[in-house]
Amino acid sequence: MKSVIKICNMESQNDAKIIQDVIVTNSGVIATEISLVKKEITVIYNDSFFNIQKTINYIEDLGYIVI
C-alpha cells in the first residue's frame, strides 16, 4: 500500500530525518520519500505488517502535527 502523511510543522532536514527514522523502524516499510516543500512523507508498505495509524501516533508523540 501507499500512504501520504502530511506534517504541517516539518521544517528542516533534521525534522525529516527524525520522522523518517520513526517510520523505517517499523516492520513492513518498503520505501519512503520525503518532500520538505510539500511537508509530506510518502510511505510504501506491506499492510500485513505496518499500521499507519500507530505510526501517525508515534509522529504526533514527537510533537509534530499530522493533518
Could you list some keywords that capture this structure?
single chain, 67 residues, alpha+beta, Alpha-Beta Plaits, three-stranded antiparallel beta sheet, 2 helices, HMA_dom_sf, Copper chaperone, metal ion binding
Q: What oligomeric state do these chains adopt?
A: single chain
Task: Please provide the count of β strands.
Answer: 3
CATH class designation: Alpha Beta
Briefly note the CATH topology name: Alpha-Beta Plaits
Number of domains: 1
Distance between the termini: 19 Å
Average pLDDT, to the nearest integer? 96
Protein name: Copper chaperone
GO molecular function, one term: metal ion binding
Organism: Clostridium chromiireducens
Describe the structure.
With 67 residues, this protein is α+β, with helices and mostly antiparallel strands. It has one domain (2-61): 2-Layer Sandwich (Alpha-Beta Plaits). 33% of the residues lie in helices and 27% in strands. It contains 2 helices and 3 strands. It has helices at residues 13-24, 52-61, and strands at residues 2-6, 29-35, 40-45. It has a 3-stranded antiparallel sheet with strand order 1-3-2, with helices on one face. Strand 2 (29-35) and strand 3 (40-45) form a beta hairpin. The protein is globular. It starts with a strand and ends in a 6-residue tail after the last helix. This is Copper chaperone. One of its GO terms (molecular function) is metal ion binding.
Task: Describe what is shown at a glance.
With 67 residues, the chain is of the alpha+beta class. Helices cover 33% and strands 27% of the residues. The mean pLDDT is 96.
